[in-house]
Amino acid sequence: MTTRIAPFAPTAAEPALAHAPAFPADGFDVVTGAFSYSGSAIAATLERAGRRVRTLTGHPERAGSRSTVDVRPLDFDDVLGLARSLEGATTLYNTYWVRFARGAEDHERAVANLRSLFHAARQAGVERIVHVSITHPSISSPYGYFRGKAEAERALAEVGVPYAVLRPAILFGGDGVLLNNVAWLLRHLPVFAVGGRGDYRIRAIHVDDLAALAVAAGQERANAVVDAVGPERPTFLELVRQLRGAVGSRSVVVRVPGSLVPPVAGLLGLALRDVLLTGDEYRAMADGLADTTGPATGSIALSAWIDENADTLGRHYASELDRHFRRGRRRGRASSR
Ligand SMILES: NC(=O)c1ccc[n+]([C@@H]2O[C@H](COP(=O)([O-])OP(=O)(O)OC[C@H]3O[C@@H](n4cnc5c(N)ncnc54)[C@H](OP(=O)(O)O)[C@@H]3O)[C@@H](O)[C@H]2O)c1
């Protein structure tokens, strides 16, 4: 069953806790990846609401010098340590996932890791888990990502801690990788290939809207499953054309058979020493899994955001491998707000 959650949006005129009757007066919350992408937005939203934040992360060195976030390791081999780090926390906000298989990290391993994390949270007495998933997870999906996400949601439901699941399709804003890198390609390549007719839709949500939804979901008590989606759902071709216009690209947008996209993305990935887009990611998007038709749960319009950030979008390439698979590398700077 899907339940709606009103996003958490304190304003200067209305103090944060006036919106947050369920927040205990003290205590803290745990956010995975508070120095990574969506985790940093969730941590910032919590801190603005007056909450103390602890993070579980594999990248403690990314904490800024003025960070007030308490840092513990995200070490799935040490379940007792995870439980100790979670002890006393009110809510666990989980963003952990592995985007694609590489080395020992794959979706099966990510599901097993999440089982450990959820059990550690129950053992530690965490009151609620807010878990970031994906639109259209399915145990019978042909795509490992979507199958794994469905298995993770099932593991969460079985663990017995009250929960909320947020299901975004694609995130934008902050220093997100995906749209930034489409803009980067449009700035640098003479030709940009769109697979098939490019008529599959993209229902993206701003990372700050996702964070507001997550924090609101942390204050509820009932179990909830919510699509985290913004107000617009352009086709991929429309999105590419808008990005092209916004960044002043002269790249020629051509439509190519969908079967060509994974090998072309693979070759570009080799040149950039990164993984741009996996075959499964392309096929899932072309199958319509990045779209939903339900009501928007985020309010920031993708088109307005692209226009506002046209100057910075795609100026720097953002490497997924540097962020998650190459130890000691700094995060590449991507876009602005
Ligand atoms: N980004 C999108 O467009 C998008 C779209 C749909 C759904 N989602 C979902 O939203 C959630 C958050 O995504 P995000 O883009 O915000 O993720 P992220 O910040 O890049 O990573 C989230 C967390 O996962 C950890 N992590 C990621 N890759 C890892 C790896 N290979 N090995 C070990 N740890 C790894 C990070 O660890 P560190 O703290 O060590 O960095 C961080 O704690 C995920 O569940 C994702 O499936 C994202």
List the helices and strands and how they pair.
Elements: E1 28-32, H1 38-48, E2 52-57, E3 70-73, H2 79-86, E4 89-94, H3 107-124, E5 128-132, H4 144-159, E6 163-168, E7 170-172, H5 178-188, E8 191-195, E9 204-206, H6 207-219, E10 224-228, H7 236-247, E11 252-256, H8 261-272, H9 279-286, H10 302-308, H11 320-324
Parallel strand pairs: 1-2, 1-4, 2-3, 4-5, 5-6, 6-10, 7-9, 8-11
The structure holds NADP nicotinamide-adenine-dinucleotide phosphate (NAP).
What report would you give on this structure?
With 337 residues, the protein is an alpha/beta fold. It has eleven helices and eleven strands. It has helices at 38-48, 79-86, 107-124, 144-159, 178-188, 207-219, 236-247, 261-272, 279-286, 302-308, 320-324; strands at residues 28-32, 52-57, 70-73, 89-94, 128-132, 163-168, 170-172, 191-195, 204-206, 224-228, 252-256. The strands form three sheets. The protein has a seven-stranded parallel beta sheet, with helices on both faces. A two-stranded parallel sheet has the order 7-9. A two-stranded parallel sheet has the order 8-11. Helix 1 links the parallel strand 1 (28-32) and strand 2. Helix 1 crosses helix 6 (207-219), helix 2 crosses helix 3 and helix 3 packs parallel to helix 4 (144-159). Mean pLDDT is 92; it is low at 10-21. NADP nicotinamide-adenine-dinucleotide phosphate (NAP) binds next to helix 1, strand 7 and helix 11.
